[in-house]
Amino acid sequence: MGKAEDLLATVLPEERRLQVAALLRRDTRVRVEELADRFAVSGETIRRDLKVLEDRGVARRVYGGAVATDGGWLRSEDLHDARRAQRAIASAAASLVEPGETVMLGLGSLVTETARALPSSFAGRALCASVPAATVLAARPGIEVHLAGGLLRRPDLACTDDSAERFFDRFFARRAFLAADGLDPRAGLTCAHLEEVPVHRALIRQAAECYVLADAPKLGTVAVGRVAGLAELAGIITDDAADPDLVQALEHGGARILIAPQVPRSG
User: Fold this and answer.
1) CATH entry, 87-259, from 3.40.50.1360, 3.90.230.10, 1.10.730.10, 3.30.360.10
2) Lowest-confidence region among 53-67, 106-120, 121-135, 215-229
3) What mean pLDDT is predicted for residues 59-71?
């Protein structure tokens, strides 16, 4: 595995959680410090991963780490389903991009997956708000890659300060893709990290069409930072596990919902 692949492996949360779940299955117990060293991320990032695994019934957090839960391995399939949902959403998003376009790629693992899913024949310009998305495309011939720069957030290698916002203000794109922490009929698009709000807003402002990538659990969720109203978005791309009632409520709130087709199970 090359250095670029090593880097990407450390910043895709669902892939990392799958590996942590496998370690729990094998060893029944994991420690935060050891996992942080193994995946080259912070202890805070690992604790967030363990919280997600606990919510899914795979782990129970204890002092310094986590232990496996009885029967949790039946639910570890949820992690694989989440990964498949990400791939489906990314594939649907990438299919919207046309040859020669300038595309803006925001923050989050779903956006990195979308960069990875762009057809090998795609040639155009990519304006990236994170190192992982830029790294995916940097080795691709025919793609001109621009990286926002500014303050680098260590856990996910995202550019989040006002320098990143000003970077996007220099351009105009046909299409933009950003990931969501929450999409609600009343609250609209929200994010959990306040420093991301200006970057998200810049993408919406500077693109003719902005699509939000959100797996099913994000629908109906409200995070602390308000980004935009639903009517400001060209569409929301989600997976087929989305609650039909939530989809209908979002549509009534002004959103256009695109349900990504399933992708085959790997292996």
Assistant:
1) 3.40.50.1360
2) 53-67
3) 80
Q: What is the pLDDT of residue 25?
A: 81
Amino acid at 32: V
Q: What is the domain partition of the chain in residue ranges?
A: 3-75, 87-259
Three-point CA angle 109, 203, 103, nearest 5°: 70
CA-nearest of 177, 180, 203 to 117 is 177
**Residue 60 amino acid letter:** R
CATH tag, 3-75: 1.10.10.10
Calculate the dihedral angle through the C-alpha atoms of 146, 149, 152, 157, rounding to the nearest 10 degrees.
0
Please state, as a whole number, how many other Cβ atoms lie within 10 Å of the Cβ of residue 172: 13
Of 1, 152, 196, nearest to 15 (Cα)?
A: 1
Of 80-84, 196-200, 211-215, the one with minimum mean pLDDT is 80-84
Supply 79's token pair.
């992690």
Per-residue confidence (pLDDT) for residue 70, from 0 to 100: 61
Phi, psi of 109 (to 5 degrees): -65, -30
Give the global pTM: 0.76
Whether 233 and 65 have beta carbons less than 8 Å apart is answered as: no
Rounded to 5°, angle at Cα 128 from 264 and 238 = 35
Alpha helix (H) ranges present in the chain?
A: 3-9, 13-27, 32-39, 43-55, 72-75, 77-94, 109-117, 131-138, 162-169, 197-206, 244-252
